[in-house]
Amino acid sequence: MRHHYSCPLRWSDMDSFGHVNNVVFLRYLEEARVDFMFRLAREAAPDAFTSGAVVARHEIDYLRPLVHRHEPVEVETWLTKISTASITVGYEIKDATTVYARAATVVVPYDLDLGRPRRLSEAERTFLEPYLDDTCHVPASPHAR
Fold first, then answer.
1. Which PANTHER family does the UniProt record give (predicted)?
2. Cβ distance 107 to 54 under 8 Å?
């Protein structure tokens, strides 16, 4: 199963070269991940991720330039790995005809009160497991051999 997030493009997302700046892609990933983990997960399990989660790693392959337009892009999200104390989120930023970027983020459940990583709860794991697709690892660089 995949999570689909419709992400609007903003005029301010463009850089001096006339396309969406590479740093803005991280914002698009964040918006989709927050919608997935903090809206959708909490609808399924109200206590999911309430104590926090932190990003441990990002990896992005930029495949095509994205220019400003009125139509949103879709950020498709799934999991490529679930362990006891982390998840790896896979993404594609795309529209109907083009994939603009593929990315991966390692997220660690975190206890904000104690200031340390924690294990996934059973409710979190139950919510996450349908989104696991460990056959589709990203990024898949076009330059990889």
1. 4-HYDROXYBENZOYL-COA THIOESTERASE FAMILY MEMBER (PTHR31793), LONG-CHAIN ACYL-COA THIOESTERASE FADM (PTHR31793:SF24)
2. yes
Report the amino acid identity of residue 91: Y
pTM value > 0.85? yes
Q: What structural domains and CATH numbers belong to the chain?
A: 3-131 (3.10.129.10)
First to last CA, the chain: 28
Q: Which residues contact 121 (CB under 8 A, 6 or more apart)?
A: 45, 47, 48, 109
Tens-digit pLDDT profile for residues 10-47: 999 999 998 999 999 999 999 999 999 989 988 888 88
Rg (CA), the chain: 16
* Residues 6+ positions from 84 with CB-CB distance below 8 Å: 119, 120
